[in-house]
């Protein structure tokens, strides 16, 4: 290694104690995939001079591509594949970092992808989990209604009776647990940024050779009776394999053509994805082609709430303090060592006062040289501080406090009806933007599986969440 000197390497090491030299242990794996690991002196020289390795440079920016866990991409396959040169993504990341302001706390501010392990840990806290559960539950609570009529040119494969078609669709949707699967997909997309539903076709093997085949939703692409089931796939087990990064004029620009699912390559036609909060094309490789999760958006507000709650708890636990006014000079002169008289030292006197006064009605003090007073911290305004922190946390998902925390408004004639109506409007917009595309593809697949053709007159209607209160009927006079 040119320019390397052991004397310069160890000149900054302390030489107070002389120890016998110990050679570092050899690495366990000296070769992997045809690549030899660096010599231990090279790695030590890099660490001592704080030179980042290529892996460190890849994870040092929020624009770096996502790295899946072991087993998602088989050995010998590069991830992700692009149509452009292999260095295009690193060049784009370097350019993006040069155009943005220096922000050393971009991870703490939630500007970059936190990673699925961190998001899974955040989902264990009720403050992160509850908003996602409320939105997923409300979006699928009243469910949908299907309607149809006889078209002008009906297909001979479809039943002639519209009621029979609707009944068959309802039975098939219950068999496939579409409602529960969509609820879980919404929950995954809010917790992790993206949710997947895998289409399990009975005539396709669960291997790369079978799953890489396209699945066009046409009478010639789906055979009758081949839809075996549907399954939710957590995004941690998936990562894109190839996508178009050449021309923004193409329809599939930054849209994965296929996905790795725990070692198996699956065509995008066989995965129905949902991304509620999308990100820029610059961040899509970093976010595993998902979006910003709701938990990551809530992170600074939840941390502020937890800090406020802990501070209020500490204040209320120590709101009253006993103050002993005594001869500090005389007590300090007696010393605080173990040999000193515990009743005459300053620490001994304070400990004695705490023991006899805690939980007692009488406080004993020297009437000539001491005085005792109680200092209480005012607790007014603490409830308002905690309420403001809770309101800020509920404002991000747009959930009323009565829905999120069960807190009813105070005051004369106070009501949350207006806030609940606004929240239901938000849920209705969420259903139209994110649930309708998924349901349309699923219903098309279900119709092809049942009849080999689709009903052009089939319509999907989301049932309104707001239910009118039934007025009690006046009792008739006997």
What does this structure look like?
The protein is of the alpha+beta class. Among the domains are: 116-294 and 424-462, no CATH class; 300-397, no CATH class. Helices cover 38% and strands 13% of the residues. The strands form 5 sheets. The protein has a 4-stranded mixed beta sheet with strand order 3-7-8-9. A 3-stranded antiparallel beta sheet has the order 6-5-10. The chain starts with 5 loop residues before the first helix and ends in a 16-residue tail after the last strand. It comes from Parasaccharibacter apium. This is Anti-CBASS protein Acb1-like N-terminal domain-containing protein. InterPro entries: Acb1-like_N. Residues 117-470 form the Anti-CBASS protein Acb1-like N-terminal domain.
Gist?
The protein is built from 15 helices and 13 strands. The chain has 478 residues and is an alpha+beta fold.
List the helices and strands and how they pair.
Elements: H1 6-10, E1 31-32, E2 35-36, H2 40-48, H3 54-58, E3 81-82, H4 88-99, H5 116-122, H6 126-139, E4 144-147, H7 162-175, H8 178-192, E5 195-201, H9 208-211, E6 227-233, E7 238-243, E8 256-261, E9 264-267, E10 271-274, H10 294-317, E11 320-325, H11 328-333, H12 346-357, E12 371-376, H13 382-395, H14 401-404, H15 417-451, E13 459-462
């Amino acid at each position: 290694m040119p320019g390397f000197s052991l004397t310069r390497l160890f000149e900054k090491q302390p030489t107070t104690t002389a120890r016998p030299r110990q050679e570092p242990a050899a690495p366990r794996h000296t070769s992997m995939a045809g690549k030899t690991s660096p010599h231990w002196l090279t790695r030590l020289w890099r660490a001592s001079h704080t030179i980042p390795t290529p892996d460190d440079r890849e994870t040092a920016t929020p624009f770096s591509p996502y790295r899946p866990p072991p087993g998602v991409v088989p050995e010998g396959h590069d991830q992700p594949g692009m149509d452009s040169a292999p260095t295009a993504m690193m060049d784009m990341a370097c350019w993006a970092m040069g155009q943005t302001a220096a922000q050393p706390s971009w991870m703490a501010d939630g500007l970059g992808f936190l990673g699925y392990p961190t998001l899974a840990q955040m989902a264990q806290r009720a403050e992160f989990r509850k908003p996602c559960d409320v939105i997923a539950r409300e979006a699928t609570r009243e469910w949908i209604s299907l309607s149809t009529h006889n078209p002008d040119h009906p297909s001979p494969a479809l039943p002639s009776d519209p009621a029979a078609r609707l009944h068959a669709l309802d039975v098939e949707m219950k068999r496939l647990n579409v409602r529960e699967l969509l609820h879980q997909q919404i929950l995954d997309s809010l917790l992790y940024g993206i949710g997947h539903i895998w289409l399990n076709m009975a005539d396709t093997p669960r291997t790369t050779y079978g799953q890489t085949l396209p699945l066009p939703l046409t009478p010639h692409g789906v055979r009758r009776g081949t839809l075996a089931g549907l399954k939710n796939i957590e995004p941690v087990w998936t990562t894109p394999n190839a996508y178009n990064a050449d021309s923004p004029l193409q329809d599939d620009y930054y849209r994965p053509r296929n996905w790795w699912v725990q070692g198996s390559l699956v065509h995008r036609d066989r995965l129905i994805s949902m991304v509620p909060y999308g990100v820029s094309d610059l961040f899509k490789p970093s976010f595993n082609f998902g979006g910003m999760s709701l938990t990551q958006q809530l992170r600074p507000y939840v941390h502020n709430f937890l800090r406020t709650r802990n501070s209020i708890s500490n204040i209320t636990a120590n709101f009253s303090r006993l103050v002993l006014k005594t001869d500090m000079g005389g007590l300090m002169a007696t010393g605080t060592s173990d040999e000193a008289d515990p009743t005459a030292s300053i620490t001994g006197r304070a400990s004695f006062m705490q023991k006899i006064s805690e939980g007692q009605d009488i406080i004993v003090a020297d009437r000539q040289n001491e005085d005792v007073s109680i200092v209480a911290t005012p607790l007014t305004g603490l409830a308002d501080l905690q309420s403001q922190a809770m309101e800020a946390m509920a404002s991000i998902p747009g959930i009323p406090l009565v829905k999120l925390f069960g807190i009813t408004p105070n005051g004369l004639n106070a009501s949350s009806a207006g806030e609940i109506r606004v929240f239901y409007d938000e849920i209705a917009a969420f259903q139209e933007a994110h649930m309708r595309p998924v349901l349309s593809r699923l219903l098309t697949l279900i119709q092809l599986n049942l009849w080999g053709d689709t009903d052009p007159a089939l319509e999907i209607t989301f049932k309104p969440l707001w239910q009118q209160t039934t007025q009690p009927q006046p009792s008739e006079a006997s």
